Amino acid sequence: MNKQPLDNQDFELIEKALGAFTSELPKDWHGVSAGVRLKSGHIETGFVLECENPILGACAEQTVIGKVLEIIKQDPIELIVAVRERDETKYKVIPPCGRCREFITDYAPQADVIIFDKESDDIFKVSATTLLPFKYQAME
Ligand SMILES: [Zn+2]
User: Fewer CB within 10 Å, N or C, the chain?
Assistant: First the structure.
């Protein structure tokens, strides 16, 4: 796995994702946000889509990909991060779940993903495809 250091723009994406949390949300259960930076530099954020029935939720990475879906063919996602508001770690960055790794590699296979490794207390970015070896492929 090729770990790359973050630059100032990458840390800015983390800050934007964290800054998206607001009391304007209809419920107090949207505790995860994700941010994407497109090739143009445009940044978008989205929230976990929680539901009273917990098995029906959609992760923040999925909602933010949905928000940029109509423009990523011309302006692809180059970086994605998810943050948990209540996480007590320094950066609040959380790794994408397995389901999101499928979404990310489907819609942004060229993107990097910001990862915080609690064991080493290190933050870095890696290619999305390295997070999902032997990706699912539908049989034809
Ligand atoms: Zn997920």
Answer: C
In which domain, by residue range, is 119 found?
8-22+29-131
Ligand 1 centre distance from Cα of residue 1 (Å): 20
Let me know: does 91 contact 14? Beta carbons within 8 Å.
Answer: yes
Q: Within a domain: residue 108? A: yes
CA 48 to ligand 1 centroid distance, Å: 9
Taking the centre of ligand 1 as the mean of its atom positions, its distance from the CA of residue 55, in whole angstroms, is 12
- Ligand 1 centroid to Cα of residue 80, in Å, is 12
> What one-character DSSP code corresponds to residue 125?
E
Residue at 123 is within a domain: yes
Q: Please tell me the distance between residue 60's alpha carbon and the centre of ligand 1 in angstroms.
A: 7
| Distance from Cα 116 to the centre of ligand 1, integer Å | 15
pTM over 0.90, yes/no: yes
117 lies in a domain?
yes
DSSP string for 4-32: B---HHHHHHHHHHHHT--TTSSSTT--E
> What CATH code is carried by the domain that includes residue 78?
3.40.140.10
Q: How many domains does the chain have?
A: 1
Examine residue 138 and state whether it is found in any structural domain, yes or no.
no
Q: Which residue type sits at 48?
A: V
